[in-house]
Amino acid sequence: xxxxxxxxxxxxxxxxxxxxxxxxxxxxxxxxxxxxxxxxxxxxxxxxxxxxxxxxxxxxxxxxxxxxxxxxxxxxxxxxxxxxxxxxxxxxxxxxxxxxxxxxxxxxxxxxxxxxxxxxxxxxxxxxxxxxxxxxxxxxxxxxxxxxxx
Length: 150
Ligand SMILES: O=c1[nH]c(NC[C@H](O)[C@H](O)[C@H](O)CO)c([N+](=O)[O-])c(=O)[nH]1
Known about the structure:
The chain is α/β, with parallel strands linked by helices. About 50% of the residues lie in helices and about 20% in strands. The protein has a 4-stranded parallel sheet with strand order 2-1-3-4, with helices on both faces. Helix 1 links the parallel strand 1 (about 15-20) and strand 2. Helix 1 (about 25-40) crosses helix 5 and helix 2 packs parallel to helix 3 (about 85-105). The two termini are about 15 Å apart. It binds 5-nitro-6-ribityl-amino-2,4(1H,3H)-pyrimidinedione. 5-nitro-6-ribityl-amino-2,4(1H,3H)-pyrimidinedione (INI) binds near residues 21, 55, 79 and 81.
């Protein structure tokens, strides 16, 4: 038997956590994700906005604890600057989201792009492709797969 999540969004409840830092990029990631969800029939979406990517795991943990969503999509943009901050933020957010996946019952998708500069970010936020759309597809697949294996 092969289990693979489909992309149907009808009846799914999705939570999106999006950070405002590098808003020029993250607002496009959000638009791409919402476009994907709408085209796949998702009608129940809550959006939570946080200051920066580092704040994402806290809200993801709180939402996962409540168990209100079939899946949670996190969206952010960490751009390498002059400081070492980039690595700290990127690593901690990834670790935080991974930990929540292993602690709670619903998939939490890591949709935080980590890029060297704004141009790379723009390429991934709509110029060449929209990673937000791609991460939303992953969210649909994992939400539906989770329903099948539960
Ligand atoms: O979302 C981001 N937050 C960033 N920093 C802020 C961080 O997410 C927290 O909001 C802040 O440290 C307060 O907790 C970034 N950098 O500084 O590089 C970044 O590129 N992206």
